[in-house]
């Protein structure tokens, strides 16, 4: 995926290192809905530079980490964890053997995949019977979709042409590819920062919005997504949904 190569990949990785605690709620969501177990093999799809990879690998027997960007995977390789296997593939190009994983996890990655039907066919192939599919992402019509389409698409160094979800399409995909009717749940996520200024810097870097400034990134996010102050921290609303299903 060319989107996450070069400057975008470098800025993304640098951002997560600069603000290591901003996305702690994302980790909590993974643990709540995926419920990884110590004897399982988990496939992480669209892992990026591995915000979930270390906490997952610390729980499960084996973690297969997939991403189409070698530059992103290189960051996970630095963890040097023996139970992580890296594969440079996207969701729609997976070549894993049939029935090799207990569960699949993905967060904020599948809107970059235009061939979701092929991706779900691949998921059904690699999952064991009754294996879990847990995907969190961006939905059409949401404030987050508006943020991406009016801010990130304009100012990201690579652009941001994507395909967001609808409940109906998610249900159809599951029906067509051998999954149970999914539970689709709202996630009222908040990313947390020590200062409001940090939010602008974070968004500027994580989305490589080099065609504008951190100040403008902050302004757009505050207008569209909203920012609250809680317990001394500035909390950026990041509304997503999560699909939870099982292979039939």
Description of the structure:
With 248 residues, this protein is α/β, with parallel strands linked by helices. The chain has a domain of 172 residues: Vaccinia Virus protein VP39 (Rossmann fold), CATH 3.40.50.150. The chain contains 9 helices and 8 strands. Strands 1, 2, 3, 4, 5, 6, 7 and 8 form an 8-stranded mixed beta sheet that branches. A hairpin with a 2-residue loop joins β7 and β8. The longest helix is centred in the N-terminal third of the chain and has 13 residues. The two termini are 31 Å apart. The mean pLDDT is 95.
What is the CATH C level class of the domain at 20-150 and 159-191 and 239-246, in words? Alpha Beta
| Average residue pLDDT | 95
* The CATH superfamily title of the domain at 20-150 and 159-191 and 239-246: Vaccinia Virus protein VP39
Main structural class: alpha/beta
Shape: globular
Question: How do the helices and strands follow one another from N- to C-terminus?
Answer: HHEHEHEEHEHHEHHEE
The strand count comes to: 8
The rounded Rg comes to: 17 Å
**Helix residue percentage:** 25-40%
**Amount of beta strand:** 15-25%
CATH architectural grouping of the domain at 20-150 and 159-191 and 239-246: 3-Layer(aba) Sandwich
Assign the CATH topology of the domain at 20-150 and 159-191 and 239-246. Rossmann fold
What are the segments in which pLDDT stays under 50 over at least 5 consecutive residues?
A: none
Count every helix, treating DSSP H or I runs of 4 or more residues as helices: 9
Largest sheet: 8 strands, mixed
How far from one another are the termini? 31 Å
């Amino acid at each position: 995926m060319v989107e996450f190569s070069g400057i975008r990949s470098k800025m993304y990785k640098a951002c997560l290192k600069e603000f290591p605690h901003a996305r702690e709620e994302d980790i909590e969501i993974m643990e709540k809905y995926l419920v990884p177990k110590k004897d399982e093999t988990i496939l992480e799809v669209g892992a990026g530079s591995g915000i979930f990879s270390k906490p997952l690998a610390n729980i499960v027997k084996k973690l297969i980490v997939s991403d189409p960007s070698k530059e992103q995977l290189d960051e996970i390789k630095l963890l040097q964890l023996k139970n992580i296997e890296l594969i440079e593939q996207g969701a729609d190009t997976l070549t894993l053997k049939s029935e090799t994983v207990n569960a699949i996890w993905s967060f904020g990655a599948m809107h970059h995949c235009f061939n979701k039907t092929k991706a779900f066919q691949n998921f059904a192939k690699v999952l064991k019977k009754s294996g879990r599919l847990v995907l969190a992402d961006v939905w059409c019509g949401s404030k987050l979709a508006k943020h991406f389409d009016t801010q990130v698409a304009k100012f990201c160094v690579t652009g941001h042409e994507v395909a967001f979800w609808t409940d109906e399409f998610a249900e159809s995909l599951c029906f067509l590819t051998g999954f149970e009717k999914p539970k689709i749940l709202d996630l009222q996520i908040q990313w947390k920062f020590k200062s409001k200024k940090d939010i602008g810097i974070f968004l500027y870097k994580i989305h490589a919005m080099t065609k504008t400034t951190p100040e403008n990134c902050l302004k757009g996010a505050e207008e569209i997504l909203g920012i609250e102050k809680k317990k001394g921290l500035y909390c950026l609303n990041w509304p997503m949904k999560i699909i939870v299903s099982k292979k039939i």
